[in-house]
From TrEMBL:
Superkingdom, natural source: Bacteria
InterPro entries: Polyketide_cyclase/dehydratase, START-like_dom_sf
Originating species: Methylophilales bacterium HTCC2181
Protein name per the record: MxaD protein, putative
Signal peptide: 1-19
A Pfam family it matches: Polyketide_cyc2
The UniProt record lists the keyword Transmembrane helix: no
Keywords, sorted A to Z: Signal
Amino acid sequence: MNKFILFLVTLIFSASVLAHGPTPQKVQESVTVNVSPEKAWELVKDFGAISTWLSSAKVTKIEKRGEDTYRIITLESGDKLDEKLRSTDEDLKKIRWEITKGNVPFTDFNAYMIVSKGSNDNESVIQWTARFYRVYKLNPPIPEGQDDATAKAAVQGFVDSGLAGLKKVLESK
């Protein structure tokens, strides 16, 4: 009887280990720009200015919904993203937001950017951190295009393009 109970307990715990769902993903990159942190922060914190530095963002519209601020980004593909501003911290030079709706190969996207001083007064480091999940929330088999690799590649593309765009725009002013 004791061996049977031990077998059942082992079986239950083994099954729960396999039923964990998707693993959270993270992309974190940074770029050094040759402008002061104050100048870099002015552009980064402007929630409506993303279409000036993210190449895939063609049009940005800001909307107030109650107390919340949203930006609706029209991508070059024609798809739209709804993003909600979570917070802006002037002291830390940090902005946080989330994607609430959009046709993208990832879900539960939350991100933040921080601007910090570089090695001198006219140098800044801009860090972009994004956390998200793949679209398919169940266990394998995972449909093509809804896997971790697809989600990570898409977010990595946004982050890399965005940081390159920020550097280009900031250093050309």
